[in-house]
């Protein structure tokens, strides 16, 4: 793993929605672990990329999943031509070299995996590597960040209280219409008038949340629609392909969404 590969050279575009940039900087200065909370596609990943660029720290991202083990994070011995050699996992790399480690969708990981971050997420700031009988003290620049979608919360998939209470949190949500339109226009290349229409259609889909839709169209989906429009696809077809078809298989909800967009044009 070459740490230099994890440095961001070009500024990732991030449009602040509230005071999150400042709050993150302060949390980083205090080395307080941070939890980014909110639905999918609202800018959590983009935000942490932007912050890593601002703070000039490498960013190591891990997409958490059910089958992830502590070894996937910490490291393991691997057999090579010279015999067995130790390979640091992504968390150990970040801890040793002072990167920001972003554990995306942390609730997907099993709780027995999640506990390996506990000694890193309190005043000890250490990572015990049992297989090597080693205790790694975190580099002073190391920072632990996790993301969490409260919407998917269930008794089976929730963070342990002892994990939650180690983090400060920043809430992410759909931004105000003008701000979201600015983001959609910037990211997709459509003009503001088109972006504003997409955002209004997106907001209508969000009203169907809990009435057949688990979640409304995210900013990410609206950007997808915008990119199709910017390449010459009609607005209706773009919304169909980028939002309506992926988000639901229910014919009634699909027609409700279509009506919502049609009413806008
Ligand atoms: N505040 C924002 N500033 C800039 N781009 C944003 C913002 N919010 C969302 N986006 C755009 O939406 C896309 C999806 O956001 P992402 O960070 O991947 O969402 P999440 O990690 O919350 O699922 C990004 O690729 C980016 O284009
Ligand atoms: Mg993400």
TrEMBL record:
TM ranges: none
Keyword Nucleotide-binding: yes
GO molecular function annotation: ATP binding; ATP hydrolysis activity
All residue ranges annotated as the ATPase dynein-related AAA domain in the record: 33-167
Coiled-coil features, chain-numbered ranges: none
Gene3D superfamilies in the record: P-loop containing nucleotide triphosphate hydrolases (3.40.50.300)
Keyword annotations of the record: ATP-binding, Nucleotide-binding
Domain annotation CbbQ/NirQ/NorQ C-terminal: ranges: 180-263
Any Pfam family the entry gives: AAA_5
Family designation: Belongs to the CbbQ/NirQ/NorQ/GpvN family.
Protein's recorded name: Nitric oxide reductase NorQ protein
Taxonomic lineage from the root: Bacteria, Pseudomonadati, Pseudomonadota, Alphaproteobacteria, Hyphomicrobiales
